[in-house]
Amino acid sequence: MKFICKKLKITNNNNTLVDIGFEINKSFALVGQSGSGKSLSLKALLGMLPANLKYELDFSWNYPLEKGKTIVLVPQNPFTSLSPLTKIKDNFFTKDEQAKEFLKMVGLDPNLIYRFPSELSGGQLQRIIIAIALSHKPKILLLDEPTTALDSDSKKELLALIKSLQESYQFKILFVTHDISSSRIICDTIGIIHKGKIIEKGDIGEVLKNPTKNYTKKLIESSFENRKFRE
C-alpha cells in the first residue's frame, strides 16, 4: 500500500511555513533549495520539530509512523551521526554476527564493526548508517541529502546501492535533496517544494523533460547532468 500524506502543515504562531501533500508509491523525491521547507517536513514526519513549531499531519497507511521502527532516517552527515568513542558494533541493536550480515548487505567488510568511526572514510560511514537503518527493518527510509559529503563517483555508487536494497527489501523511500540529478537515480516520482508549497509534482522523467514552473527549470539547469539528460 502506498503512503499517502494527505496534509502536512507546519506553523510558527500564525505563520504557515509548510503546507504540502504527497504520495510514496515506491520512492518520492522532495526537491528544493535551502529554506524551501523540505528539512522541516522530514523533522515533522519524525516528530522532531522544535517546540516553537506546531504541525498537523494527516496520512493514510497500513502502519503507524514510529521513529526508528517503521520510519528510519539516514542523515546528511555521517561524521556527526556516530559517536567517535563508540565502536561500530555498539551502534547496532543486534548481536555482532547479525551486525556483520548487515555490513555485508551494504558491501562492507563485516569486521569493520570492531573499528571506531574515526578510522573509516565518509563513504564507509554512510554505508554503515544505511546498514544500521536496515537493521531496524524500516517500512519507509528517509534520506536527508545522504550524499552531501561524498565525491561524484561515491555518490552514484551509494545511490545505486540504496536502489538495489529497496528492490530487495521493499521499503519505501522519501528522498529530500536539492540535487535533482541524484533524485532521478533512485526515485520514480518527484515533488518540487518552494516556500513551503509543492509547486510541481509527478513522474520524475516527465517533470525533468517538461518542467512547467520556472523554479523547476532553474533547479534542472543548475545541474549539468540534467541539462545533458534533457537534451
What does this structure look like?
- There is one protein chain.
- With 231 residues, this protein is of the alpha/beta class.
- The protein has a domain at 69-173: P-loop containing nucleotide triphosphate hydrolases (Rossmann fold, 3-Layer(aba) Sandwich).
- The protein contains 8 helices and 9 strands.
- It has helices at residues 38-46, 96-105, 122-135, 152-169, 180-186, 204-209, 214-221, 224-230; strands spanning 3-12, 15-24, 27-31, 54-60, 71-74, 140-144, 172-177, 189-194, 197-203.
- The strands form 2 sheets. The chain has a 6-stranded mixed sheet, sandwiched between helices. The chain has a 3-stranded antiparallel sheet with strand order 2-1-4, with helices on one face.
- Helix 3 packs parallel to helix 4.
- The longest helix has 18 residues, at 152-169.
- The chain is globular and about 50 Å long.
- The two termini are 35 Å apart.
- The mean pLDDT is 92.
